[in-house]
Design a protein that fits this description.
Keywords: Methyltransferase, RNA-binding, rRNA processing, S-adenosyl-L-methionine, Transferase. By secondary structure, the chain is of the alpha/beta class. The protein has twelve helices and ten strands.
């Protein structure tokens, strides 16, 4: 379960923190990993609280024990880990997490859920839970090793990039099936686009399982899917501003060939302006051929000029960007003193929010 938030809100807001005290394991050693599905946790369902679930928060409580166990299994939680859970709801997953992790930090915008999950963990004898009442997109996260979350569609993209800036060991996340399929899409697949490409600069994404509406209370109107995200140990080396500028052009019409996309006057005008600025700043003499021809020569040198964006891999896009930059063609305003050095730099997590699928056109 995860709360919704307006896109225009960015600033961190004050949040309330409550720690339920030191961890208690009834005499067990702290390094013992117990069953992730204790019977007393399994028998308490979200319906037992009698709460009203709010549509504005996208509240759908996962109640299927088998799916809950798959989340825990995929997360590969160690007894020394701190787990960040976004949207604990009434605690159906939380009660499994506290039985394994050293500490669980749960964030929820709904104070009622915060109270319920605290109560349930205390009832089953675990006091290693810290709760934070606040918006997950605007709350500062404490240090953590693993993340679990159940997210509404409209905040899925910004949450991923906020999460990746913390570089956890892994994250097991519930998304609407349509969004998850966009994350998992590969070349030549209909949903392959900017989202899949940009996320994979920073991490690998694998499917855990599908989740039917009946696994929730109340049931949502759409299917869901759980994915596992693991940050790359060695992030790809690329200027993200340059990269995203090029990818936006390539996926403005992802089924058109690159020759057609880079033949647009609007695209050529911007690139030529950047090129002239780059030449001036670097004391370079502009090429003695029309700029359009210069662009096409770069495309032809990569062997991608007749390829459609939907068929091009990340490695090939990186090759294309390098060829453009080596020819002095840039996708950012190189005169901006705040822009990064135009040589390659290690990729970083962008500070803006990714727009939804309207950007990936046929």
């Amino acid at each position: 379960m995860m709360n919704k938030t307006p896109k225009q809100l960015r600033r961190a807001e004050p949040y309330r923190i409550c720690t339920v005290g030191p961890k208690k394991r009834d005499g067990m050693s702290s390094d013992v990993v117990v069953n992730s599905s204790p019977q007393n946790a399994r028998n308490i369902t979200s319906g037992s609280s009698g709460m009203t679930f709010f549509k504005k928060y996208g509240q759908h409580m996962l109640k299927n024990p088998g799916i809950l166990d798959k989340i825990v299994q995929a997360a590969e939680i160690r007894s020394s880990d701190t787990v960040l859970e976004i949207g604990p709801g009434t605690g159906n997953l939380t009660t499994r997490l506290v039985a394994i992790a050293r500490k669980v930090v749960a964030i929820d915008i709904d104070a009622r859920m915060i109270g319920e999950v605290k109560k349930r963990c205390i009832q089953i004898g675990y006091n290693n839970l810290t709760v934070i009442e606040g918006d997950a997109l605007r709350t500062e996260y404490p240090k953590f090793d693993v993340c679990t979350a159940n997210l509404p569609y409209q905040i899925s993209s910004p949450f991923i990039f906020k999460l990746l800036s913390h570089r956890p060991l892994c994250a097991v996340l519930m998304f609407q099936k349509e969004f998850a399929e966009r994350l998992l899409a590969n070349t030549n697949e209909d949903k392959y686009g900017r989202l899949a490409i940009n996320v994979r600069l920073f991490c690998t994404v694998t499917k855990v399982c599908k989740v039917a509406p009946g696994s929730f209370n109340p049931p949502p109107k759409v299917d869901s899917m759980i994915v596992k995200i693991v940050p790359r140990q060695h992030p790809l080396v690329v200027d993200f501003g340059e990269w995203d500028g090029m990818i936006r052009i390539c996926f403005s019409r992802k089924r058109r060939i690159l020759r057609s996309l880079f033949n647009k006057q609007s695209v050529l005008s911007i690139l030529e302006c950047n090129y002239k600025t780059w030449c001036s700043l670097n004391n370079q003499i502009p090429v003695d051929v029309p700029f359009k021809q210069h662009v096409m020569q770069v495309l032809e040198s990569t062997g991608l000029v007749e390829r459609r964006s939907i068929t091009i891999s990340i490695a090939e896009f990186l090759k294309l960007l390098l060829a453009f930059n080596e020819a002095g063609i840039h996708f950012m305003n190189v005169a901006n003193p705040k822009s990064q050095d135009q040589t390659k730099v290690q990729s970083h997590i962008p500070q803006f929010l990714f727009e939804q699928d309207s950007l990936d056109q046929d």
